[in-house]
Amino acid sequence: MSGKVLVVDDAAFMRVMIKDTLKKNGYEVVAEAANGQEAVKLYQEHQPDLVTMDITMPEMDGIEALKEIRKADGNAKVIMCSAMGQQGMVVQAIQAGAKDFIVKPFQADRVIEAISKVLK
Amino acid sequence: MDTNQYLDMFIDESKEHLQAINDNLLELEKNPKDIDIVKNVFRSAHTIKGMSATMGFEDIANLTHELENVLDQVRNEITEITPEIMDVIFQSVDLLEGMVYSIIEGSDGKANVAPLVEQLKAIASGQQPTAKETKQATSTDNKSDGNVDGSYGHLLDEYQKTVILQSQSTGHNALHISISLSKDCMLKAARVFMIFDALEGLGEVILADPAVEDLEDEKFDLSFELVFLTAESKDLIKGKLVNISEVAEVEIKNIDLTISSEDEDIKADVEPTVSESALDSSKQEQKQPTEKNQAAMKTKPISSKTIRVDIERLDVLMNLFSELVIDRGRLEQIARELGHSELVESVEHMSRISGDLQNLILNMRMVPIEQVFNRFPRMIRDLSKDLNKKVELDIKGADTELDRTVIDEIGDPLVHLLRNSLDHGLESPEERIKKGKPETGKIQLHAYHSGNHVFIEIIDDGNGLDRQKILNKAIERGLLTEEQGNQMSDQQVFMLLFQSGFSTAKVVTDVSGRGVGLDVVRSKIEALSGQVHIESKLGEYTKFQIELPLTLSIIQSMLIRISDEKYAIPLSSIIETAVFSKKDIYLVQGQQVIDFRGHIVPLVSLEKVFAIPRADEVEDDEVSVIVVKKGDKMAGLIVDDFIGQQEIVLKNLGTYLPNVFAISGATILGDGQVALIIDCNALIQ
Prior knowledge:
CATH architecture of the largest domain in chain B: 2-Layer Sandwich
Structural class of chain A: alpha/beta
Largest sheet of chain A: 5 strands, parallel
Keywords (chain A): Phosphoprotein
Strand content of chain B: 15-25%
GO biological process, one term (chain A): phosphorelay signal transduction system
CATH superfamily of the largest domain in chain B: Histidine kinase-like ATPase, C-terminal domain
CATH class of chain A: Alpha Beta
Distance between the termini of chain A: 10 Å
Oligomer: heterodimer
InterPro entries (chain A): CheY-like_superfamily (IPR011006), Sig_transdc_resp-reg_receiver (IPR001789), ST_Response_Regulator (IPR052048)
Protein name (chain A): Two-component system response regulator
Strand content of chain A: 15-25%
Strand order of the largest sheet of chain A: 2-1-3-4-5
Strand order of the largest sheet of chain B: 14-18-19-17-16-15
CATH superfamily of chain A: Response regulator
Low-confidence stretches of chain A: none
Number of strands of chain B: 22
CATH architecture of chain A: 3-Layer(aba) Sandwich
Structural class of chain B: alpha+beta
Shape of chain B: elongated
Number of domains of chain A: 1
Number of domains of chain B: 4
Low-confidence stretches of chain B: 127-151, 259-304, 506-516
Protein name (chain B): Chemotaxis protein CheA
CATH topology of chain A: Rossmann fold
Helix content of chain A: 40-55%
Order of helices and strands of chain A: EHEHEHEHEH
Radius of gyration of chain B: 37 Å
CATH topology of the largest domain in chain B: Heat Shock Protein 90
CATH class of the largest domain in chain B: Alpha Beta
Mean pLDDT of chain A: 87
Shape of chain A: globular
Radius of gyration of chain A: 12 Å
Number of helices of chain B: 24
């Protein structure tokens, strides 16, 4: 499996975690963003195959960023990263075009499962 | 997933967020109506929850989760912040901090969070029960309802059957779909939404069991069933559904109504046509909170461009650089001896550059003292509540920078001094009013640079120090005689507070005055090559001043020679160098002393202390003496020669020589020789 991924999360901790998981499974992390605005900008720069997007972030939250990205690129594939108790946000994200979601705490196989399904 | 490698990051970020929560909570206490602050706290709690759950620190995750629920209600203005709620939140944050710090010390981060979790839950449900709470209570109750005994006809009412029959006549299939989610699926309702979303374009869900509302509220176990009308094939639909994450199993059967049409056991609670409307209403409900969220996002300041570097790497860098400084010294010496002009020139250039480099590296190790000061507002708040005192803490110069090693050590002494000011220094509000002072006391915490030192001052406008009381106590404890006491300056009397076993508190309180008093503070600060001073005026104020060196690794020193050995003495402890005639040395009780500017100063022979061998005895009429100080005490160190002032790099003696008397470390000189660094504090006792 391969593909270019943009990792978006305000916690550097989470970014490193996801990045390592992805790298181990053959994906390439082309960029990392710490908030929604960066995510939108970096998406345009790198045109990744996939975005993992945290929901709760400063500047611009994940849902807003998702909408911006989808506005610019209707085929954008975004997987939301949510925490327990964000059901409503997740549903909203899926309505806005997110392809899937993963729930923190992340399990490596679940992350990879979601990504491989979306990229299929 | 192996999480150890992320532990450092987890700890760093958790600490940052806990600090942010603390700051914001204090702010919130002042402006309980400011929802933006709540949002910030919420976001920090949320991040901690996510990280700790990933790391497997479940107690932290649980507690933050409950905290988040309460905060969520507050930010959505369902619950109003009361002082009681604030206290519970503060306690939770304390416990979280405790857990994070226990993780730093290598434990598993477990703690008994149950009582606080209960309290938080009570707050969340006491005001207004949320969907989450009811969900947790009921999610297990519905297990038996979800199962169908092989047939599905009993689920359908007459109307639905008619619909199915009609659609079958127009070429549609009626499918019975059983879907099981995987066991560890976490946001079940969102999965359900994805499933409905996937089915939407393919046909129509005419029945769901459990009902769609219950599915949305997660009132089901792992599996649920749908009756679906579609023109598509079973396989296509199955393919779509299986490709949704966390869907464990999908079973699709054609519904043939002729089989079980006699079975009229219709469930009362099934509502067939709710799917669309229920989803729609949930969409609308969820819009509101997110919009508020977005407003909150704007308030967080943009973070500066930095990278995190392990402090150990900086230590290594510093160490490598100090090796370079040694070589630079040698090169300078060689160049001087050879007198080769081009060599001298390039060595000079290298010296200048390495000087800049040294400043840069030292600067990299500098951290704003803010890190330490940050936790004080919160501490003062708690303490003043405990002690029923009113106090305002004024912090200035939090951006003053200090070496990281100093920062790590200075926290505890400062805590001690602040507690001391609040507990012993400030009077109770009633007493203050009686004295005509403002009811609210003031504690100032100031930090500033001056020369090669950083000063930290703690000033309270409390009762000040009572010279006579201190003296009485000291005499009572047998630390000195009345006569000695009367001759002492105020400063000297105040410094008695720092003697071990001295405590002026009338009553031993919970806060301070437990005997391990200010002497610990002093020894800690002196261990950092710093000093403490006290200034006070009875009835008006007390000021503690801490003086600290900017850095501990490169120090200014005076090189001296005794016999063939070279030693370095830190400039910070030297008062003066002097030459005395042998006849000016007196013997007092067997101790050699000199009269140094009106003070009787004992002489210390370094030759004897360090047992330095000497080949030939030189008889000289004069002795060279370095007068050093430790607080108010002085001593004269007898040496053979003063070599000169030099910047040296402090290196410790390693693990083989842990506690050599009066030696704090060693340095390598320009000519490659090793010089020991003398710890003057140990020599003056």
